[in-house]
Each structure stands twice: as structure tokens, then as C-alpha cells.
UniProtKB/TrEMBL annotation:
It comes from Novosphingobium tardum. Belongs to the short-chain dehydrogenases/reductases (SDR) family. This is SDR family oxidoreductase. InterPro entries: NAD(P)-bd_dom_sf (IPR036291), SDR_fam (IPR002347). Residues 273-293 are annotated as: Disordered. Transmembrane segments: none annotated. Pfam families: adh_short_C2. Gene3D superfamilies: NAD(P)-binding Rossmann-like Domain. Residues 281-293 have a biased composition (Basic and acidic residues).
Length: 293
């Protein structure tokens, strides 16, 4: 059902009005994995808006460089490199290169991930490993590399992880990603407890639907309109909102926030099941398991 015209649908401020001062990250360096596009780029841009120097890691050096160029246009120093976050050697080398270019990394945004719709019985071992290892191993390896360096320097730090709203419910055609994102959330809590004595904070955003140029929501055959009507807020998230919340958790404004998995989904997870659209088994959906009609 389309969102009725009389419903009030709130919108965030425009991109050039972030919810924190332009110098709140001045003198700091953030490393963003998978920061060349999509939600990772939204994170990188949000940190750049607060004055942080930005290092972007990506599987594709071209995409990482494109993301870095967008951050540089905001007037901050940037660095881009290719990195397979599943490799501890490549992660360590990426940190070395970023710190040689920009200085010590004091903030970390774990976004690197992979996902695609497939029914659980059709997930191959390689497909399972591709999705779970990037999210789980990549988050762990980047986080521990970051923490070792901060602890050795006697310096504080903050980490933000990109999790997902469906970690509590699963999602049709998404058994691999749901498992990986759930592990990220649990890891967030565990690392926050371990590293609190070193003033290293660790949080996560359990994100709902934030359409961007590479997201499934944009490419759906049904378009976004049916999806908007399923969300109490009346719309999907704007990608800058996700970036701003992610960066905000790392500011001094929320200096006691750690170990939290913050749901940002427009209230979609609050819908009462009896009021949801009719359930169609994933294998019977004409457009594939990720179709919502």
C-alpha cells in the first residue's frame, strides 16, 4: 500500500548540514573498509564532514580511489588502497600504508561485506565462505589490528561496525549474511568489554533499508514504493543518515557509548506480524527471495 498523502514523513537535513561540528574529528584518521561505495562511502563521507582524514580500503582499488576522491572534495586528506580483509597480512600492510600517508589511525569503520540473494539449500561452501569470512573475519582482523596499535601507543579509539536489522529475525534468501551480521553484533559486545579499560569503544549500527546505487532495493522489479509502505516512518533510510549515525557514535558527544547495537530502520522491525503483508514462501516469489511483493 502506498504511504497515504496525509501521513507526515520526516526527512533528514540536507547533506551539507551534518549533526556535528565540522572540526569534531580534527586531527584524527579514520580507516573505512569497503569505503569506496554504498554504505561504506556514506560512513567515509560522514567522517570527512567532521574533519577526519580518511583512509579507504577496498577490494577494487579503482572504487576505493573514487571514494577517496569524494572525501577529498570535502577538504580532508585521503588515502586509498586495495585490501582483502580476510588476510591478516594484507590488513596489517594496509594499516601500515594508511598510517604512513595520514598518521596513526584513531577511528575504524568496519563495512566490508558481500551479499546476494540465494535460498539456503542452494548456498555453496564457497558462497557461504565468501559472505561470512569477509564480514566476520574482516571485522575481527581489522578490529584487532586497530586495537593492538592503539593499546601499544597508549591511545584511545573508537570502532563502528555495519551490522543489519535482520540479525534478530533472519531474512529470506539471506542465511549467509544473517549469520555473518549476527556474529558482528556479538563481536561488537565482546570487544567492547575487553577493550573498555583502554578507552577503545566499539559499537554497531543494525541498519535497515538504505537504498544506494548498488543495493538490491534500487534494482527490485517492484521499485521502492511497496517497500516504503511497509516501514512505519513512511520511507526507507537516506544513506547520509546511516553515515551520520555511524560517525556520531565515534564522537566525544557519545563518549560513554560502547557495546551497543543500534537499530536504524525507520521502525520496520516494530511492525506487528498480523499487520504485515501476506507471507509468500521465498521460493515462490516471482522475482526471487528478496522480493517483498
Amino acid at each position: 500500500m502506498p504511504v497515504p498523502a496525509h501521513h507526515i514523513v520526516p526527512e533528514p537535513p540536507p547533506f551539507d548540514r551534518p549533526p556535528y561540528p565540522a572540526d569534531i574529528f580534527a586531527g584524527q584518521v579514520v580507516l573505512v573498509s569497503g569505503g569506496g561505495s554504498g554504505m561504506g562511502l556514506a560512513m567515509a563521507l560522514a567522517f570527512a564532514q567532521g574533519g577526519a582524514a580518511v583512509a579507504i580500503l577496498g577490494r577494487s582499488i579503482e572504487r576505493a580511489e573514487e571514494g577517496a576522491a569524494q572525501c577529498a572534495a570535502l577538504g580532508v586528506p585521503t588515502f586509498a588502497t586495495s585490501c582483502d580483509v580476510r588476510s591478516p597480512e594484507e590488513v596489517a600492510a594496509a594499516f601500515d600504508a594508511a598510517e604512513a600517508a595520514l598518521g596513526p589511525v584513531s577511528l575504524l569503520a568496519n563495512n566490508a561485506g558481500a551479499n546476494f540473494p540465494v535460498l539456503a539449500e542452494n548456498i555453496s561452501a564457497n558462497a557461504w565462505n565468501a559472505v561470512t569470512r569477509i564480514a566476520i573475519d574482516g571485522t575481527f582482523l581489522c578490529s584487532t589490528e586497530f586495537a593492538r596499535r592503539r593499546i601499544a601507543a597508549g591511545a584511545s579509539g573508537a570502532i563502528i561496525n555495519n551490522s543489519a536489522q535482520y540479525i534478530w529475525t533472519g531474512f529470506p534468501g539471506d542465511a549467509h549474511s544473517a549469520a555473518a551480521k549476527t556474529a558482528q553484533a556479538t563481536m561488537t559486545r565482546a570487544l567492547a568489554r575487553e577493550w573498555a579499560p583502554h578507552d577503545i569503544r566499539v559499537n554497531a549500527v543494525a541498519a535497515g533499508f538504505f537504498p544506494h546505487e548498488r543495493s538490491s532495493a534500487v534494482s527490485s522489479r517492484n521499485g521502492l514504493e511497496p517497500l516504503q509502505g511497509m516501514i512505519p516512518a513512511g520511507r526507507t533510510g537516506r544513506i547520509r543518515e546511516f553515515g551520520w549515525l555511524s560517525a556520531m557514535t565515534c564522537t566525544p558527544l557519545l563518549g560513554d557509548l560502547t557495546g551497543q547495537v543500534i537499530v536504524q530502520d525507520g521502525g520496520e522491525s516494530l511492525r506487528r506480524s498480523l499487520m504485515n503483508p501476506d507471507f509468500i514462501p521465498p521460493r515462490e516469489r516471482e522475482g526471487g527471495p528478496w522480493e517483498w511483493r
